[in-house]
Amino acid sequence: MASTREYLDFVLEQLSGLDELSSRAMMGEYILYYRGKIFGGIYDDRLLVKPVPMALRLMPDAEMELPYDGAKEMILVDNVDDRQFLYELVESMWEELPEKKKKNIH
């Protein structure tokens, strides 16, 4: 099941106070970026974020779910209605996110 544009728009609206927030469609789902780093995505109309230490601290009881078969588990964010929490989550995760991979050009 692919994610709907409506759910993506809702999540982006919830995070609209953050600068440099973007998304990219990929195989019916959406990858989410903050200040150039991937922090999570929309998979089957679920907001999933990378399990970095800060996210695990902020959501100690959150469920881990697979975005798709064969992927690494990610944290399910079930309180997407709480705009302030989402801001704090994404902002606090940024330092712990991996840098964007450089493409090798031969």
Name the average pLDDT: 93
CATH class categorisation: Alpha Beta
- Tell me what the CATH architecture is: 2-Layer Sandwich
Instruction: Work out the helicity level.
Output: 25-40%
Question: Could you name the CATH homologous superfamily?
Answer: YgaC/TfoX-N like chaperone
Calculate Rg over CA atoms. Answer: 13 Å
**Beta-strand residue fraction:** 25-35%
Report, as a whole number of angstroms, the end-to-end distance: 37 Å
Q: How many distinct helices?
A: 3
Which sequence of strands runs across the widest sheet? Answer: 1-2-3-4-6-5
Reported by name, the CATH topology is: Yope Regulator, Chain: A
Number of strands: 6
Biggest sheet, in brief? 6 strands, antiparallel
How would you spell out the order of helices and strands?
HEEEEHEEH
InterPro entries: TfoX_N
Domain TfoX N-terminal: 13-74
Protein name: TfoX/Sxy family protein
Pfam family, one: TfoX_N
SSE arrangement:
Blueprint: H1 5-14, E1 21-26, E2 29-34, E3 37-43, E4 46-49, H2 53-58, E5 64-65, E6 74-77, H3 83-93
Antiparallel strand pairs: 1-2, 2-3, 3-4, 4-6, 5-6
